[in-house]
Amino acid sequence: MTPRTICHFPAAYVELPAGYEFRRAAFYLALEEYVAKMLPVGNYLFTWRLRPTVVMGRNQVAHQEIDLDFCRREGIDVIRRKSGGGAIFADERNIMVSLVTGAGPVEALFAEYAHRVCDCLQSLGAPTSVSGRNDIVLEGKGELAGGKVCGNAFYHQSDCNIVHGTMLYDTNPALMEGALHPDVSKLKSAGVKSVRSRVALLKDYLSIGVEELQEELRNVLTNITVVLSEDDVRAVEEIEAGYYAPEYLLGSSARAEVVREGRVKGCGKVEVHFRLQGSLVRGVELYGDYFELADAHAAFNAAFAGVSFTPEAMAEAVERHHPECSIRGLSAADLLGILV
Phi and psi for 292 in degrees, rounded to 5? Predict the structure, then answer.
């Protein structure tokens, strides 16, 4: 028997009250959950745009995928989503698309969504096709052929499916490059790695701007509108708060031990073993032939436990707690030379 085909389009467009544009990514991810839980069973879609943001997959180790220090310096938000896949960079020149449906075959939904979006882009003049991973890429020849213009991810939640995609109309290449390329020579641990893909820009193929493209997607993919209330927004914000918890944002099921070691004149050999859960330091063990002036194990754990595993965070912990004072002949500069 041939499986029954379920059509999820046109869907209902979910619209926020006036004045709620350009929220943080976690708000829109929480909105997906709220729509799935609180609205009647059906097919719902909304689009959104962000200030500079990195969104990583649920199984990734943050410091392994992202230059967290660069993001903090440049004011780039960092968020973890609940779907798999790799880390992406988005800003005001990208369009994010969220689709929430009832229970059903995930692969069929994923493929239908990707092909609908691809058809829309083709109708506007972009020579696109759907790749084997249900991403959307440029066709043709030349250096841009095969470049990804829309990456998609999905996850299943109880009795619903959630698909979200990132459409690359344009971007700031310097911020994208800086945010998504950590110094892997200094920061290593186990985890799910992103697969870096060549990207292309839709602005090079379309005669319309990003706002117009966002409206075209709404017109093609939806036919009615559901307007949320301010009470709905407050309920979404309660879900949103959970996305910022350090355990969720920087933690992970991936565990690793990273060793930093060095020999300091007048001090001896110092080995610092960091136990990591995701990008959070869970504990520190010390080894070496140094002499203690105080309980070094306690001092180093007090300084580093719960800190994100990045060079700047390590330096700030040393400056704040001065764990080096527990070891004879070890200066803050010596310790930083070992750690970062």
Answer: -90, 140
